[in-house]
Design a protein that fits this description.
The chain is mainly α. Helix content is 57%, strand content 0%. The radius of gyration is 18 Å and the shape is globular.
C-alpha cells in the first residue's frame, strides 16, 4: 500500500504520503480528505479481482464528496442515496475483519444513514465536520502534557 501511494505522480494540490502511510496511528480529518483524493488510484491495482471491494471504496468516496456540497437538490440527494446503497451492498465484505463482525456497531457508518434526513432538515452538512474539535483536542492534550512534565 505504501508503495502504491508513493508511486502516484505529484500534483500541486495533492498531498504525498510516501512510504509511511501504513505506519500512521491516527489521522486528522484533513489527512483523511487528502487520502480520499488519491486512494482509488492507489488501490485499484491492489484490488484487481476484488471488484466489489473497489465498488465499496468508490461508493464511500462518492458519498463523502457529495455530502460535502454546500447545497443540495433532489438530484444530488439521489446521488447520495445511490452511494449509500453501494456502501450497504458491499460493507459485509469487510465485516470478517472486525472483532464483533457487526456493521450496526460502527457509529460512523451508522451516522451515514441519517445524512440525507439531516440535509433535508438543515439544507447542508456545513459545520458538521470534526476538524475544529480535532485541532482543539490536540492542543488541549499537548498543553496538559506540557503542564505535567
Amino acid at each position: 500500500i505504501d508503495e502504491r501511494f508513493s508511486a502516484l505522480p505529484r500534483f500541486s494540490n495533492i498531498r504525498q504520503f510516501g512510504h509511511k502511510l501504513t505506519r500512521v496511528k491516527q489521522c486528522s480529518g484533513s489527512e483523511y480528505k487528502d487520502m480520499l483524493k488519491i486512494w482509488l488510484a492507489a488501490l485499484t491495482l491492489l484490488l484487481k479481482g476484488y471488484s466489489n471491494h473497489l465498488k465499496f471504496l468508490k461508493s464511500v468516496t462518492d458519498f463523502i464528496l457529495i455530502a460535502e456540497y454546500h447545497s443540495h437538490t433532489e438530484i444530488t440527494l439521489r446521488y447520495l442515496q445511490d452511494a449509500l446503497h453501494g456502501i450497504s451492498r458491499n460493507i459485509n465484505l469487510f465485516l470478517p475483519y472486525r472483532f464483533n463482525q457487526s456493521k450496526c456497531k460502527i457509529p460512523k457508518i451508522h451516522s451515514l444513514f441519517h445524512y440525507i434526513e439531516y440535509i433535508k432538515d438543515m439544507c447542508s452538512t456545513n459545520n458538521s465536520d470534526t476538524e475544529v474539535s480535532e485541532a482543539t483536542h490536540k492542543n488541549l492534550i499537548k498543553d496538559g502534557y506540557r503542564a505535567l512534565n
